[in-house]
């Protein structure tokens, strides 16, 4: 089953609170989804991810398609069982990764031929193959196979690509077998061209998907442009369906996304920068490897009650990074995921209390954003 | 405080059960001590190590001496606080690591000058410096600074080295300031020469340490020789003090150690082979990366109730190793430590029930040891 309920709406902006119900549990929105690319949220056990308050994770069809492959996931009884995660999962379509292999792929109307980033072997993904793989994965939310066009790109390229993405969305919908257990989302493209975004959104809404994603944003364009296109696009998406902004995970982009009507977002950012030793804190980012933390026996973030901040000092975490200990990556990953999940919790509450803008402005002031 | 109580003795061999009491808690012996070289048991949180039943961990003075250094540990309030571990800690003296740098060190009566394995900087450790560092670390059991001689080595080298180790032991004891909180163990050396082992043991027993280690074994000599020298040596150690065999962590060596009167042992083996994908199971070792586990959806060990075996399949763990995910190292580390700690629990019970030899023989038969 799949259900979206709109529970509260800000009076100041497009921010909204809702609830998604799936076979693997409910998701309070707006939500940030930690990424478990290869059937694991890097460095973490599923129990830890759950304890941090994650209600849904994202996993990547492209990576799982190559390793361990469809056959093994099928025999394991699906992705939930394989990786020991019993809450909702969203899988992407593989499109983003395939199109990132810019010089190693060939697009036709049928699909995309590409060379594996692992062994160079020739592979092919079409809308049907992507949905078939996602049906096998058994994820609660699956994504239509789309092209995430690069930025900048000329209008005719974007138009051509966006129209094909809409045709592919239709093929995905027709092929999708498991509609009672897995909700298929369409993905709006159209680059930075508003009229193309409008055409894209309308064509997908005509197909009546249970949810919609905004793709092709946060791909290198200026923030103002991203916000402008996002704000324009969400106006064309139905109020009674969830909206997902793909690939966004910095605190400011999450605030902007919510302000302009987004319910879901994902990004590798918090976990990736964690492994490089960067912690998100209520006072901005800190690079824990810096010498100034050598004898700093305070926690990463004074305002944080995560496991890491309750038990370890900056000096200890810096030591762990200095000697390349795996616990270092774990501790900062825990902290960063807690930070974002807790932020989203605060955002949800602020919308219910109808003081989202105040909450946002206070956060920006403390975090050091100049807005 | 430091107290050893002998609680039970096998009627068949020298195996014994005891209890060590320290300021940070009690230790039921015989015990295996997981190694936390650089103030962390690799890949694990302290809570996880505790949950597995570890009663004491070992940490390495040499590594902590170089990074983060004495000053930072001192300011942190000692090693327990620095690393968030509130149970007993044993630290080695640094001797083993310094003497492993065979071409980068110069031994004098005063101590050892060596070049750091990290940056090549010139460093010096003497018995006094080692004890001073261990006093700062605040570990519950500290070790005298010794030379662990190589195998094979000629008699005159071993004799000379062993005599110096005894002189250093005396200096360690004289320098040791914190005797009410930290128990200093002497280390018997003497290579494979029984008469030298006897001299070493007697000279240390004369100094009346609260516990004794057997060093310089399991350094490449045949197993029979190791057992013979160990059996000979423990006869010269007092019944009312704990005995620690350094650097032993394979199941067979642990059984042999206990059979010949050892109470404590440590080794990086279980955690190191875990990170290379080798799991210890009741049916012997398995190399999880092997292709034959690709579609094996059973746990690492059918007879195991650890977190890993309760929740994950061999196929999933193999996938994690294939794609170099950190969770792979964590899951097999948890399993291997559980395996050894659980084995020691079984050994303790078998001694109390006075059926140690039966327990050992059954284990060897299942594990595939040819004895």
TrEMBL record, chains A, B:
Classification via NCBIfam families: Q_tRNA_tgt, tgt_general
Recorded name of the encoding gene: tgt
Presence of keyword Cell division: no
Provenance organism: Peptoniphilus koenoeneniae
Database matches in InterPro entries: ArchSynthase1/Queuine_TRR (IPR050076), TGT (IPR004803), TGT-like_sf (IPR036511), tRNA_ribo_trans-like (IPR002616)
Catalytic reactions on record: 7-aminomethyl-7-carbaguanine + guanosine(34) in tRNA = 7-aminomethyl-7-carbaguanosine(34) in tRNA + guanine
Name by which UniProt lists this protein: Queuine tRNA-ribosyltransferase
Note accompanying the cofactor annotation: Binds 1 zinc ion per subunit.
Family that this chain belongs to: Belongs to the queuine tRNA-ribosyltransferase family.
Annotated stretches, region: RNA binding: 247-253, 271-275
Gene3D superfamilies per record: Queuine tRNA-ribosyltransferase-like
Subunit structure: Homodimer. Within each dimer, one monomer is responsible for RNA recognition and catalysis, while the other monomer binds to the replacement base PreQ1.
First-level EC class: transferase
Residue stretches making up the tRNA-guanine(15) transglycosylase-like domain: 14-367
Function: Catalyzes the base-exchange of a guanine (G) residue with the queuine precursor 7-aminomethyl-7-deazaguanine (PreQ1) at position 34 (anticodon wobble position) in tRNAs with GU(N) anticodons (tRNA-Asp, -Asn, -His and -Tyr). Catalysis occurs through a double-displacement mechanism. The nucleophile active site attacks the C1' of nucleotide 34 to detach the guanine base from the RNA, forming a covalent enzyme-RNA intermediate. The proton acceptor active site deprotonates the incoming PreQ1, allowing a nucleophilic attack on the C1' of the ribose to form the product.
GO molecular function per UniProt: glycosyltransferase activity
Phylogenetic classification of the source organism: Bacteria, Bacillati, Bacillota, Tissierellia, Tissierellales
Signal sequence range: none
Active site: 92, 266
EC number(s) recorded for this UniProt protein: 2.4.2.29
Keyword annotations from UniProtKB, A to Z: Glycosyltransferase, Metal-binding, Queuosine biosynthesis, Transferase, tRNA processing, Zinc
